[in-house]
């Protein structure tokens, strides 16, 4: 009886659906199917682009073939490696099974990766709520969406990948970029963070997985700088803003995949039962392009994004040093761009170095007397010494002589030891800081002297690490720093993530003594020194600058990001800390204040852009209006604050097209 009942119900349901489909063919709940000559049965879809990827019924993720990607405007919205469904499942299963092991990022937070997954799912489901949670709990969750956990996320990104975020421009897309950039459905993009994955934090070449760092940096652009990520179309009406399904995120993470030289990510076949499955990595399975071929890809990308969004700002992130400086020189005078690792880091380090001078109870003007040993001569280390040298020269009167003499305050040590003018094949970017061999000899040093020898002989005021080598400031090196001529030496262990820090604050305070200044790139807890005393562990990370540099540039409408704008940003950060705080060893603010700091930094950038006559205005504030605003510091701050987006649910009303 019940069987008969079920059959009758199924038959009448089928009749109802057929009848409906005869009257209105689009009303069938399942898509209509046809059989082609080859026997495939295509399915008609009435969606394209991201709408397909966000539809669980149609989405195939990385299994969309290249022809399908072109047919459906998906090119660039997925990582470039087209996978079979077996590869997809294998990738998923490997990730699922290693969850336990990979969830650990050292003893500090065994649940960091699990927290990232939960937050990421919230980001996919409800952006407003995601950013509300992030802003309200920034101290707790910045270390999850950003450094250090973002490093672990990048290392595992191929496994963690679920819903794509951002765009992928690959070497295979040469000749297509100008058209594929239109696959991103937003008519306005304010901020792009782009990486080629070649040097992610201190973790090396992570290939396509590096997109995680661009996503993390943009989270801070939204949370700290209040760059509006949402799909709002500004309308002619003061009463209503039109939101449209076709307007997507105005912050865009980008991965330029030119291959990888990380062999682990290249065609590592894995065995599955009797058959072998090719790499489960999401990236191009080839070695990195180099030379002119590489530059041609980056040029094509820049042309494409600036053609579609002429007002966009592009932040270059985690490019290996070999390209970081060259690309910066190539575009910085013609495009709204900057390199965070070179310029953002330099600004943060300058603010920290000036803070360290103040913390010694000396006036900032004494900065040119500081002896600074820098371990690491990559994009970050060289960026810092260049900027510090310029700052010293300015303090000494900005003459050529001052600029020339300032370089003698730095000793740069890389993987091959102290850099001197005897170094063969010296990197041209490091050349100005190569020590004169004779003079080094008089100090008891030579080409290639070890870090410990340099610290012992120079007795520096500051020991700064941007080497990416965890533990480089060994017991021996820190013991040597006890001989510093400074009453309060500064130790900056700036490499990321946590395990790549040159030393921990516990090591620094316990070996060098209580009377030091300590800063690190990734967050560490303060150290209990006993007797109610606290050893402050400052976080010296470019996160205190890049959001303000981007926001200030956007709000000023400057066509380029000048040295002066970057310098103004660094100086504002340096001035943020009070005398009292600095004397207690707090040279950087807590991250809970990041929104306020970013406002200040952005205001300084706007003021400088106006001062240099670079500001062209933003939206309905033109250059002249900006000039007026900039006559009063309070007004600039108000202008910036009022332009910062805060996550609030809008009231939604349905409107027929
Ligand atoms: N705190 C921050 O805001 C911040 C900003 C940017 C970069 N960083 C960190 O700085 C590190 C380096 O970045 P990069 O772009 O300059 O990398 P890079 O690979 O270009 O440079 C690393 C440099 O360290 C040198 N080095 C390697 N081993 C060494 C050793 N044993 N002793 C001395 N020097 C050694 C290398 O020779 C090279 O010059 C990374 O860990 C990155 O996370 C931190
Ligand atoms: O990403 C960070 O935390 C800082 C910096 O940009 C880095 O490359 O380490
Ligand atoms: Mg970086």
From TrEMBL:
<feature type="active site" description="Proton acceptor">
    <location>
        <position position="217"/>
    </location>
</feature>
<feature type="binding site">
    <location>
        <position position="496"/>
    </location>
    <ligand>
        <name>(S)-malate</name>
    </ligand>
</feature>
<keyword id="KW-0560">Oxidoreductase</keyword>
<dbReference type="InterPro" id="IPR012301">
    <property type="entry name" value="Malic_N_dom"/>
</dbReference>
<feature type="domain" description="Malic enzyme NAD-binding">
    <location>
        <begin position="342"/>
        <end position="610"/>
    </location>
</feature>
<dbReference type="GO" id="GO:0005739">
    <property type="term" value="C:mitochondrion"/>
</dbReference>
<feature type="binding site">
    <location>
        <position position="541"/>
    </location>
    <ligand>
        <name>(S)-malate</name>
    </ligand>
</feature>
<protein>
    <recommendedName>
        <fullName>Malic enzyme</fullName>
    </recommendedName>
</protein>
<dbReference type="GO" id="GO:0046872">
    <property type="term" value="F:metal ion binding"/>
</dbReference>
<feature type="binding site">
    <location>
        <position position="318"/>
    </location>
    <ligand>
        <name>a divalent metal cation</name>
    </ligand>
</feature>
<dbReference type="GO" id="GO:0051287">
    <property type="term" value="F:NAD binding"/>
</dbReference>
<dbReference type="InterPro" id="IPR015884">
    <property type="entry name" value="Malic_enzyme_CS"/>
</dbReference>
<feature type="binding site">
    <location>
        <position position="341"/>
    </location>
    <ligand>
        <name>a divalent metal cation</name>
    </ligand>
</feature>
<keyword id="KW-0479">Metal-binding</keyword>
<dbReference type="InterPro" id="IPR036291">
    <property type="entry name" value="NAD(P)-bd_dom_sf"/>
</dbReference>
<dbReference type="GO" id="GO:0004471">
    <property type="term" value="F:malate dehydrogenase (decarboxylating) (NAD+) activity"/>
</dbReference>
<feature type="active site" description="Proton donor">
    <location>
        <position position="146"/>
    </location>
</feature>
<feature type="binding site">
    <location>
        <position position="317"/>
    </location>
    <ligand>
        <name>a divalent metal cation</name>
    </ligand>
</feature>
<dbReference type="Pfam" id="PF00390">
    <property type="entry name" value="malic"/>
</dbReference>
<feature type="domain" description="Malic enzyme N-terminal">
    <location>
        <begin position="123"/>
        <end position="332"/>
    </location>
</feature>
<dbReference type="InterPro" id="IPR037062">
    <property type="entry name" value="Malic_N_dom_sf"/>
</dbReference>
<dbReference type="InterPro" id="IPR012302">
    <property type="entry name" value="Malic_NAD-bd"/>
</dbReference>
<dbReference type="InterPro" id="IPR001891">
    <property type="entry name" value="Malic_OxRdtase"/>
</dbReference>
<feature type="binding site">
    <location>
        <position position="199"/>
    </location>
    <ligand>
        <name>(S)-malate</name>
    </ligand>
</feature>
<dbReference type="InterPro" id="IPR046346">
    <property type="entry name" value="Aminoacid_DH-like_N_sf"/>
</dbReference>
<comment type="similarity">
    <text>Belongs to the malic enzymes family.</text>
</comment>
<dbReference type="GO" id="GO:0006108">
    <property type="term" value="P:malate metabolic process"/>
</dbReference>
<dbReference type="Pfam" id="PF03949">
    <property type="entry name" value="Malic_M"/>
</dbReference>
């Amino acid at each position: 009886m019940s069987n008969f009942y079920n059959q009758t119900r199924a038959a009448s349901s089928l009749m109802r659906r057929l009848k409906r489909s005869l009257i209105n063919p689009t009303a069938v709940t399942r898509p209509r199917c046809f059989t082609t000559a080859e026997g495939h049965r295509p399915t008609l879809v009435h969606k394209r682009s991201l709408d397909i990827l966000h539809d669980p019924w149609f989405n195939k993720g990385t299994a969309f073939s290249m022809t399908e990607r072109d047919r459906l405007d998906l090119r660039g919205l997925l990582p470039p490696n087209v996978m079979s469904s077996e590869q997809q499942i294998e990738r998923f299963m490997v990730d699922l099974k290693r969850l336990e092991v990979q969830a650990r990022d050292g003893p500090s937070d065994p649940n960091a990766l699990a927290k990232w997954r939960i937050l990421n799912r919230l980001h996919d489901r409800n952006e407003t709520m995601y950013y509300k949670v992030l802003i309200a709990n920034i101290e707790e969750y910045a270390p999850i969406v950003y450094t250090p956990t973002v490093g672990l996320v990048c290392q595992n990104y191929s496994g963690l990948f679920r819903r794509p975020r951002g765009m992928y421009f690959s070497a295979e897309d040469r000749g297509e970029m100008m058209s594929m950039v239109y696959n991103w459905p937003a008519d306005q993009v304010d901020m792009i963070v782009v990486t080629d994955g070649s040097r992610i934090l201190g973790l090396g070449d992570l290939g396509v997985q590096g997109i995680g760092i661009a996503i993390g940096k943009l989270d801070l652009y939204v949370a700290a700088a209040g760059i509006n990520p949402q799909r709002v179309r500004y309308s002619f009406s003061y009463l209503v803003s039109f939101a449209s399904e076709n307007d997507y995120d105005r912050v865009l993470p980008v991965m330029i995949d030119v291959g990888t030289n990380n062999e682990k990510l290249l065609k590592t076949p894995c065995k599955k039962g009797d058959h072998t499955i090719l790499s489960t990595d999401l990236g191009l399975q080839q070695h990195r392009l180099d030379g002119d071929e590489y530059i041609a890809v980056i040029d094509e990308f820049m042309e494409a994004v600036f053609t579609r969004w002429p007002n966009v700002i592009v932040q270059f992130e985690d490019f290996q040093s070999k390209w970081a400086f060259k690309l910066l020189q190539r575009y910085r005078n013609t495009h709204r761009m900057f390199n965070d690792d070179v310029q953002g880091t330099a600004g943060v380090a300058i603010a920290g170095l000036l803070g360290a001078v103040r913390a010694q109870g000396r006036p900032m003007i004494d900065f040119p007397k500081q002896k600074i040993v820098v371990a690491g001569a990559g994009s970050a280390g060289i960026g810092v010494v260049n900027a510090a040298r310029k700052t010293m020269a300015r303090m000494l009167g900005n003459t050529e002589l001052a600029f020339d003499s300032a370089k003698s305050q730095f000793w740069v040590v890389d993987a091959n030891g102290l850099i001197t003018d005897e170094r063969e094949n010296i990197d041209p970017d490091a050349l100005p800081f190569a020590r004169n061999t004779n003079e080094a000899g008089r100090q008891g040093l030579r080409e290639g002297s070890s870090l410990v020898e340099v610290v012992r002989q120079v007795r520096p005021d500051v020991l700064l690490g941007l080497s990416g080598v965890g533990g480089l400031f060994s017991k021996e090196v820190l013991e040597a720093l006890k001989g510093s001529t400074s009453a309060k030496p500064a130790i900056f262990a700036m490499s990321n993530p946590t395990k790549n820090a040159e030393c921990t604050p516990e090591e620094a305070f316990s070996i060098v003594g209580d009377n030091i200044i300590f800063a690190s790139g990734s967050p560490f807890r303060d150290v209990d020194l006993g007797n109610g005393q606290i050893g402050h562990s400052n976080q010296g990370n470019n996160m205190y600058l890049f959001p303000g540099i981007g926001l200030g540039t956007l709000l000023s409408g400057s066509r380029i990001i000048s040295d002066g704008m970057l310098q103004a940003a660094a100086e504002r950060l340096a001035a943020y800390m009070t005398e009292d705080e600095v004397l207690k060893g707090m040279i950087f603010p807590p991250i809970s204040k990041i929104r306020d700091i970013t406002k200040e930094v952005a205001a300084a950038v706007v003021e400088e852009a106006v001062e240099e006559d670079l500001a062209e205005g933003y939206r309905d504030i033109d250059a002249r209006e900006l000039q007026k605003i900039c006559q009063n510091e309070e007004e600039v701050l108000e202008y910036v604050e009022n332009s910062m987006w805060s996550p609030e649910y809008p009231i939604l009303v349905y409107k027929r097209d």
